[in-house]
Amino acid sequence: MRGNIVLAPDKFKGSLTAEQAAWAMAQGVNRADPELTPIVCPVADGGEGTLSAVVAAGFEPVDAEACGPTGAPVRTGYASKDGRAVIEMADICGLQRLPGETLAPMTATSYGLGQVIAQALDDGCRDLVITVGGSASTDGGVGMLLALGAEVQDRHGAPIAPGGQGLADAARLELSRLHPGLSTATVTLAADVDSPLCGPLGAAAVYGPQKGVSADQVGELDCGLTHWADLVARVTGEDRRNAPGAGAAGGVGFGALAVLGAQMKPGIDMILELVELDRKMLDAIMVITGEGSLDQQSLRGKAPVGVSRHARAHGIPTFAVAGISSLTGAQARTAGFRAVRTLHEVEPDLTRCTANAAELLIRVTEQLVRDSTQSGQPQPHSFAERGRSVDI
Q1: How far apart are alpha carbons 352 and 10 in whole angstroms?
Q2: Can you tell me the distance from the alpha carbon of 363 to that of 354, in angstroms, rounded to the nearest whole number?
């Protein structure tokens, strides 16, 4: 059987990067039928792994050094192509950059993100895409703005403390020294969070606990974010605290929307545009996507569901391979998957499954392709339900 199969997985966290997963799938396709052509297209959802996905799609990596979430220097960078810069917050000052994985709910800062934005501007980039999944801070974007030249002081004229802890003390905001490159730049905020900055659905209340924020600290941070939003509104003449996405990345969304003039775009759609998934789907007979764990969270805008949505628009059947899956058959069908397979159904021991993920992924993909193309057309086969396949 001839035809193209697009392979568009996200990372298998702890085992394989998205690119490694895609190439393992490609080996599985070749084993199943050498006449099939695998089209490798690793994807991401805007968090960890975004830079790797866009570099695999042809962007050039640019090295940078910046402050991590607690101020310690980290080696990071951005990806560049034709004047466009893709900047991944997770790689600069996200949860993965916390020293010793120790959470810093009140002091973590977005300062490093601003440093890399400034470097991209210095390098001549004027089309900036900021992906903000996996952030460690709840500072309303103040750190990012400080690194871009803003001045924020308390009522005594002293700099405020870093992180969300200093927001309540902010009394003066000066924006006249913002990086001059911003005046001619287009900024896109790639985020799948449409929550407001403050209140019960805001950055501190909803996402703070994931960053170690205690119940008492939620109230403190929310008051600080409200005070910060009041100050920004007075200075800019516009109140963006309730704009969709203002609560993204602990309020970095608010800083980008209110001060940098950013436009928001759903993170997965932005990434799939950058990696040119739709173009790669031309003439494809099927798409295989996947990630380490398919679960309820996957249904709320994660990469595999985004891939499925794009494939469905082209009328192409989509199949998923995951390390493990807790989706029911009904949930998987609703997500647009013709079938779901898991590595766990082949290797029930999770330690061995993680260690041997690449070879298992090759085997599972090979069998999936054989089963789905045996009649000459991709066919539904089975859904993996709680780690095992069940017929539909």
Answers
A1: 20
A2: 14
Can you name the residues that pair with 40 across neighbouring β-strands? 7
CB neighbourhood size of 374 (10 A): 14
Q: Domain spans of the chain? A: 3-42+283-375, 50-268
Cβ proximity of 347 and 353 under 8 Å: yes
DSSP output for 250-292:
GGHHHHHHHTS--EEE-HHHHHHHHTTHHHHTTTEEEEEEEEE
Burial level of 186, CB count in 10 A (0-12/13-18/19+)?
Answer: middle
Cα separation, 89 vs 229, whole angstroms: 22
* Fold for the domain defined by 50-268: Glycerate kinase, domain 2 (3.90.1510)
pTM of the full structure: 0.91
pLDDT at 391: 36
pLDDT in tens, 94-134: 999 999 999 999 999 999 999 999 999 999 999 999 999 99
Kindly state the average pLDDT of the residues 183-195: 94
- Alpha carbon distance 376, 304 (integer Å): 25
Distant-in-sequence, close-in-space partners of 301: CB < 8 Å, separation ≥ 6: 45, 192, 266, 267, 268
